[in-house]
Amino acid sequence: MVISRSSRETYRLGIEISKILKIKDIVSIYGELGTGKTRIIQGICRGLGVKERVTSPSFALINEYSGKLKVYHFDFFRVNSLSEAMELGCIDYFYDDGICLIEWPEKIEKLLPEKRINVIIQYHKERKNWRRIEIIRNP
Ligand SMILES: Nc1ncnc2c1ncn2[C@@H]1O[C@H](COP(=O)(O)OP(=O)(O)OP(=O)(O)O)[C@@H](O)[C@H]1O
Ligand SMILES: [Mg+2]
Fold first, then answer.
1. What are the tens digits of pLDDT across the range 4-17?
2. Does the C-beta of 42 come closer than 6 Å to ligand 1?
3. How far separated are the first and last CA of the chain, in Å rounded?
4. CA atoms within 13 A on the CB side of 38
5. Helix residue spans in the chain (DSSP H)
6. CA atoms of 103 and 27, how far apart (whole Å)
7. What confidence tens digit (pLDDT) does each residue in 116-125 have?
8. Residue 42 phi, psi (nearest 5)
9. HSE of 26 in the Cβ direction (CA atoms, 13 Å)?
10. Which CATH class is domain 2-138?
């Protein structure tokens, strides 16, 4: 567990995470609204050499970037059923030769491969800009 004390620290942690990633890895990022899921993904993408602007793919649901590897950025916040996610072909992406970074993975938990890296971001009880961040490799 680490404590991030600013948006920038979360971004830097994302860059650190990028260093352990390999082709076909899936990173699922859990956390309430506004905890910094997109922010940490911006750091990961930076570390992976993505040059494009990284923002939440709220409408498209999937953004595709190219860095050293292909990077797929998902945001399932607005998805309300597994079939909706399946229609988007997300399962194909999960097994594709890229790296998947997923916001709101709990929405499609059942579709996710078990082998993945879970990042859990929580608000800190004491300070508005602090976050508790856990990184758990599964299995
Ligand atoms: N320690 C911190 N880590 C990350 N973000 C922080 C931190 N402190 C403040 N912030 C701010 O919190 C906001 C996080 O926004 P971000 O879009 O990354 O959250 P999110 O989890 O993706 O939200 P959503 O659920 O809407 O997708 C940013 O405005 C950022 O500047
Ligand atoms: Mg977001």
1. 999 999 999 999 99
2. no
3. 18
4. 14
5. 7-18, 37-47, 82-87, 90-94
6. 9
7. 999 999 999 9
8. -60, -40
9. 22
10. alpha beta
Contact between residue 46 and residue 67 where contact means Cβ atoms under 8 Å apart: no
Q: Name which residue sits closest to atom 7 of ligand 1, judged by CA.
A: 7
Residue nearest to atom 16 of ligand 1 (CA): 36
Counting from 1 in the atom list of ligand 1, the atom nearest the Cα of 129 is 8
Six-digit token string for 132:
């508790």
Contact 48, 68 (CB under 8 A): yes
Domain range annotation of the chain:
2-138
Task: Bin 46: left if φ > 0, else alpha if -120 < ψ < 50, else beta.
Answer: alpha
Return d(Cα 110, Cα 112) in angstroms, integer: 6
Type and span of the H or E element at 27: strand 26-30
Question: For the CA atoms of the chain, what is the radius of gyration?
Answer: 14
Atom nearest to 42 CA in ligand 1:
18
Q: Model-level pTM?
A: 0.97
